[in-house]
């Protein structure tokens, strides 16, 4: 598995669009192998009249309980605990490079959509990776993708990624609030240029956001370790998201305002 991840990471770190696309497909293929049963063709259909298409569509998907007992999933989960093989971290870096190109075209938008979809999947398979979005720089990536300059498909995918990153993770929610994320959501909803489909996603997000916060289940893998982390202090400074992102990239050099007394 390390060899497969190494090949995928090499492609994801490239500035060449086709190589990035190849890396995304390699990660997608690895996740598909983990989530789908490899022995589905070995077991005969329960009915002789049942078609092979029905058998492949219903017999190969593993439940969450089955995944926790799968050796491939256990190996993948173990590798994600270290920064060297963490897929979510590499996908976030890839997303940052794609956004930093300074232009928008169909191919680049498709790569961004692919990265967002994979981030959602990885966060669901390895919930401790959600801690990446407790950092302002990474949360800002998602908030920047909600800007009106981005296409509706990217805005919708970003909202789904936000929900995945915030669910059962109060620390990420505090970072989202400290960066005026709720203001970004409401501003996008009020904008006349926002499409109906995106507004429906925004309503769904607000419905989720207004639900009472529930701590993570301590019985889930990695939840106990996440619960032991101290909650982050709510940021007091209020500056633009783009300026926060630039400050984070520059390593905290001069130009960032101090906290408001």
Automatic annotation (TrEMBL):
Keyword annotations of the record: Cell cycle, Cell division
Record InterPro entries: Cell_div_Cdc14
Pfam family, one: CDC14
Compositional bias ranges of the Basic residues kind: 231-247
GO process terms (BP): cell division
Superkingdom field: Eukaryota
Region (Disordered): 39-58, 215-261
Leader sequence segment: none
Stated name of the protein: Related to cell division control protein 14
Natural source organism: Cephalotrichum gorgonifer
Classification of source organism: Eukaryota, Fungi, Dikarya, Ascomycota, Pezizomycotina
């Amino acid at each position: 598995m390390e060899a497969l991840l190494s090949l995928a990471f090499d492609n994801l770190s490239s500035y060449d669009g086709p190589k990035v696309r190849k890396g995304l497909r390699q990660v997608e293929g690895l996740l598909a192998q983990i989530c789908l049963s490899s022995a589905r063709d070995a077991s005969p259909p329960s009915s002789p009249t049942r078609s092979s298409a029905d058998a492949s569509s219903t017999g190969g998907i593993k439940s969450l309980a089955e995944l926790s007992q799968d050796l491939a999933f256990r190996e993948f989960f173990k590798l994600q605990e270290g920064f060297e093989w963490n897929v979510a971290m590499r996908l976030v870096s890839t997303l940052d490079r794609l956004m930093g190109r300074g232009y928008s075209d169909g191919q680049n938008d498709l790569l961004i959509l692919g990265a967002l979809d994979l981030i959602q999947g990885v966060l669901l398979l390895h919930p401790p990776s959600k801690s990446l979005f407790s950092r302002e720089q990474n949360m800002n990536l998602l908030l920047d993708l909600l800007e009106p300059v981005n296409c509706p498909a990217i805005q919708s995918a970003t909202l789904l990624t936000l929900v995945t990153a915030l669910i059962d993770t109060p620390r990420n929610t505090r970072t989202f609030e400290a960066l005026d994320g709720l203001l970004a959501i409401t501003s996008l909803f009020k904008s006349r240029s926002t499409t109906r489909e995106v507004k429906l996603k925004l309503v769904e997000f607000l419905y989720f956001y207004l639900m009472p916060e529930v701590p993570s289940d301590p019985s889930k893998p990695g939840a106990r370790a996440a619960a032991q982390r101290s909650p982050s202090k709510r940021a007091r400074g209020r500056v633009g998201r783009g300026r926060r992102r630039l400050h984070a990239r520059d390593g905290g050099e001069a130009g960032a305002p101090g906290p408001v007394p």
